[in-house]
């Protein structure tokens, strides 16, 4: 094993972990407000679809590459947020079972995006295709720092979205722990009655939590579309949404431990790939490597689920009349 | 009005709303929705097509529909048993795949005689599915792991591990799928000649109908079923009443897994005779729609699964006739799911209205 491999593990690991992390932060917002959110998978897919569509249209209109990407991420966040409204309305207004609603949102997202991708490709671009091809994202290497052994890899070949995610994560932390809105949101998941008595609007806070999770998941989906896939297609539904759910359950619904969980998933995956390469195994073996994050998730949950404490009022819609 | 009757009405409305929404999309695409829906009936053997290939007739398509319907009945029953216990088995696809794979490599590639092979396939499928289901239940009971997360993880692990074994050992280089199982082990009799027409006869269909009634009897008439439902409606109360909650959850997931295993063998060693690597069948996920639509009731599920499978089976013919993307069908299924998920709300509205009108009539009676 040489230094190059360690660098590759870090570079690939970070570019996979951080999108998982931002999605998990979204999940934390939703669940801290008291709404179970298994819809992350569908939200990231729908966000990536909208973002990729915007990017494809902008590119067709001749927009420069950089502004196309800004546009793509903006639309991904908006698309994810809007689609999340469906989950919010089902859970809050229609009082649907939140687990079922989440799964329904995922199934519908898969069906809608693959249908619309084909229809849009046929009607607007006259091509029979089930994907939107995206340009591969540029990568940034910080001069100087990047030449430090090992640590420098964290500053080498960084996707611009990784910086965006770190900025968003800091903002999310500030909102969640340093503002009245964040305090009320967190209280909502534990004791909605108290929030109501203090004059907060429980339904609005629930709604905000779910929509924020949609927007952040949309951004995460767009990251996957620009990095791992370099396109939008049905391949976006690889279960990463569920991985990030496992991430924040493992992280006990708080930010830093969740980041740790996501990093473990990312590094497990990238070191697995490097291992297959190192041992010169045939490509079928990469299938075995693919299971590493999932196996690790299960093992971690076995050790950690018992003592973890979910928000107390998670999964129940607040009913004023039952106070 | 009785609750079940009310639910049936809501389910019918959900289906109609979805069909209307689908028709709207078809109109937008410039297709004739009525003709499209008729094509679905034609494709699934419920209406005659304009012309048939030699040896085929409407009843050939119908037999094929029943063959396609069988795994869905098992899968939706699997979902229902878990749902009644308050558990959500989203791992049905993974359990199907595992059961199908184990049965394929043990019996499917052996040279056993049909009389021994077919029952063995069914037993191995059931036991494998049961083991996976029970594992998920055990993880929930022992380590408090959300069953949705664990079953999704197991789905992916099964998908990749089995794909690895198929690609390294059991691949058919031409079809890029696993090698075809022996016809002795297959649960569907293919190309049976009856009155000059060729039919595919699904042997597991009878078992699926029996399973539906068996699940209904167990849930409605036995102590076990009572305990499972009690755990499903209020875990804490069930615990105080002396029901062993953890044990009930494991049993429920084991039964659910066994049914999923049956779905798996009737799919991979029945409707199909090989396994496509790196793919989870949509049956496992569609079964959730079926289960919701059928209100988790075995008899309701028979009707709901028939409807969903007709739509699914007819989609290929419809998409070729109308040159429209066959994914429209999964959108319609998704919408059915969406509207069914709101059923609690609609039932609540009707219940509230009924209460109000009841109160109104009793006021009048007092006056």
Fold blueprint:
The complex is a heterodimer of chains A (323) and B (367).
Chain A: H1 3-32, H2 40-60, H3 65-93, H4 98-125, E1 132-133, H5 160-178, H6 180-190, H7 192-197, H8 202-229, E2 231-232, H9 240-250, H10 255-278, H11 285-290, H12 292-304
Antiparallel strand pairs in A: 1-2
Helix pairs in contact in A: 1-5, 1-8, 1-9, 1-10, 2-3, 2-4, 2-8, 2-9, 3-4, 3-8, 5-6, 6-8, 9-10, 9-12, 10-12
Chain B: H1 3-28, H2 33-43, H3 58-84, H4 92-108, H5 114-143, H6 147-170, E1 171-172, E2 177-178, E3 188-194, E4 197-202, H7 204-221, H8 223-233, H9 235-240, H10 245-271, H11 283-293, H12 298-322, H13 328-341, H14 343-366
Antiparallel strand pairs in B: 1-2, 3-4
Helix pairs in contact in B: 1-13, 2-12, 3-7, 3-10, 3-11, 3-12, 4-5, 4-6, 4-10, 4-11, 5-10, 7-8, 7-12, 8-10, 11-12, 11-13, 12-13
Q: What CATH architecture label of chain B applies?
A: Orthogonal Bundle
The proportion of residues forming helix of chain A, as a percent range, comes to 55-70%
- What's the alpha carbon Rg of chain A, rounded to whole Å? 20 Å
Alpha carbon gyration radius of chain B: 22 Å
What is the helix content of chain B?
A: over 70%
Number of strands of chain A: 2
Order of helices and strands of chain B: HHHHHHEEEEHHHHHHHH
Q: What structural class do the secondary elements of chain A suggest?
A: mainly alpha
Query: What is the top-level CATH class of chain B?
Result: Mainly Alpha
* Average pLDDT number of chain B: 88
Please provide a written account of the structure.
The complex is a heterodimer of chains A (323) and B (367). Chain A has 323 residues and is an all-alpha fold. Chain A has a domain at 19-137 and 168-252 and 312-322. Chain A is built from twelve helices and two strands; from the N terminus they run ααααβααααβαααα. Chain A has helices at residues 3-32, 40-60, 65-93, 98-125, 160-178, 180-190, 192-197, 202-229, 240-250, 255-278, 285-290, 292-304; strands at residues 132-133, 231-232. In chain A, helix 3 runs antiparallel to helix 8 (202-229) and helix 10 runs antiparallel to helix 12. Chain A is globular and about 65 Å long. Chain B has 367 residues and is mainly alpha-helical. Chain B has one domain: ABC transporter involved in vitamin B12 uptake, BtuC. In chain B, the strands form two sheets. In chain B, strands 1-2 form a two-stranded antiparallel sheet. Chain B has a two-stranded antiparallel sheet with strand order 3-4. In chain B, helix 1 (3-28) runs antiparallel to helix 13 (328-341) and helix 4 crosses helix 10 (245-271). The radius of gyration of chain B is 22 Å and the shape is globular. The model of chain B has no long low-confidence stretch (mean pLDDT 88). Classes of the chains: A mainly alpha (323), B mainly alpha (367).
